[in-house]
Amino acid sequence: MRLDHNITVVGAHAEGEVGRVITGGVLPPEGATMFERMVNLERESAWLRDMLLFDPRGSVNAAVNLITPSVSAGADLGVIVMESDYFPPMSGSNLICTVTVALETGIIAMREPVTSVRVDTPAGLVQVEAECSGGRCKRVAFRNVPSFVLYRDRHVEVAGIGAVRVDVAYGGMIYCIVQAADLGFTLARDEARDLVAVGETIKSAAAEQLPAVHPENAGIHTINQTEFTGPIEWRNGIKTSKNAVVVSPGRLDRCPCGTGTSARLALLHARGELTIGEPFRHLSILDTVFDCRIVESARIGSLAAVIPEIAGRAWLTGISYYGVDPDDPFPTGYRLSDTWFR
To answer: Which of 266, 253, 225 lies closest to 97 in space, CA to CA?
Structure first.
């Protein structure tokens, strides 16, 4: 077997969302911070993302994560997330997958019943508490980076739809948040394709009409994704709601979405609909669950912010070895709109 770039990847999914983890064969990018490392990886080695995520080696429903040594003092490991269209500063489901893989493969020493892990991400340090038993990671709870609202109750003009009421909030990525009922959606599984088409159109319009920049890092800018939200209901004494996040270039997040949940928690708190410490349960379109709460308030520049805590579980799915045959006509893969939407 003749393959260049022999890369070891451990497969995993967090509450349904695929997050593969590179555990060997790739050197960490240069950079004095994790954000600089992310930027350098995207600029100099985007072939890695393309090779692992695009057809014929990857698929539209996956993301891939690179474990690196940490930069920040006291951190246990660094992680850079690669999605189909973006290298996002933070991703909750990918963090859960990466921590689970790191613990269950021995990259980080597992301590039962709880292993504390500090993860260095391009968005900042994230504190993780992993519940462990019998050599397995049973649950991951992480305290995310400060999350905050950038716009509330704005209207954007969307081609073919008209005026759409949106909010914009940051939870590690920047989200355009839309109430699903405003567009006639109930967040049922059979709406998935329509949610993607409408969500991508709304995102493009909102990104143009509502400039969004992180107040402490100008490199984090532009609305990345649309989040459709359902009504809040009381279930077993806990506020519960479904959501569906559209991941560019055109698919739904299979899990409740950690950074999207964080953005929504910031919005609910700003509206007075969720207090600090109050439990909140977020469901995906598959009805998988993240258990959440706001730990404390914070500030980012002049903006009020919150520290969200998100908890869910990942499961390992296998180990793969990837490379490129020197004669392969698609060394960095390809995308077709039948599955990639665009």
So the answer is: 253
